[in-house]
Design brief:
InterPro entries: ATPase_proteolipid_c-like_dom, ATPase_proteolipid_csu, F/V-ATP_Csub_sf. Belongs to the V-ATPase proteolipid subunit family. It comes from Candidatus Merdivicinus excrementipullorum. The protein is 81% helix and 0% strand. The protein has 5 helices and no strands. It is elongated, with a radius of gyration of 18 Å. The model has no long low-confidence stretch (mean pLDDT 96).
């Protein structure tokens, strides 16, 4: 296994792990808030569940980038490509937008979801507004996903 391939694997791992941590935290704080509100107003469960789930998408995006790197490097087929060190660093760098933005945006989205859950507790008809506010944070995760995808498929000749 070449140093380049190891660097690509580390990048892919970070792209999956960091947004996964952020998503777990974001969903967890949303779940705490939703559980508190649901204990008082069980009829809001469906609306609150959507808000709690929103920060979980970054973990999915990070997983997607990791799989794409594994496809590009031949790790999924069992025939890994002998990457140069420069190519390995390029894959590593391609994973960083999703890794870093995924971690931070999932945590931020969790905090926005908590605020939207509290708003929904006071005004149940405002849950769609809360979903919109929480989903705005998602924009930056999607941009990071697109940058990482473009770098993985277009920016690195293999």
């Amino acid at each position: 296994m070449t140093l380049g391939l190891i660097l690509a694997i580390i990048g892919a791992a970070l792209a999956a792990i960091l947004p996964g941590i952020g998503s777990a935290y974001g969903v967890q704080i949303g779940g705490q808030a939703a559980a508190g509100v649901t204990s008082e107003k069980p009829e809001l469960f469906g609306k609150l569940l959507v808000l709690q789930a929103l920060p979980g998408t970054q973990g999915i995006y990070g997983f997607l980038i990791a799989v794409l790197v594994m496809v590009r490097t031949g790790m999924l087929t069992g025939a890994p490509v002998a990457l140069t060190t420069q190519q390995g660093w390029a894959f590593f760098a391609a994973c960083m937008p999703m890794a870093i933005v995924g971690l931070l945006s999932a945590i931020s989205q969790g905090k926005a979801a908590v605020a939207a859950i509290h708003m929904t507790a006071k005004q149940p008809d405002s849950s769609a507004k809360g979903i919109t506010m929480t989903a705005l944070v998602e924009t930056y995760a999607i941009l990071a996903l697109l940058v990482s995808v473009l770098f993985v498929f277009i920016g690195i000749p293999v």
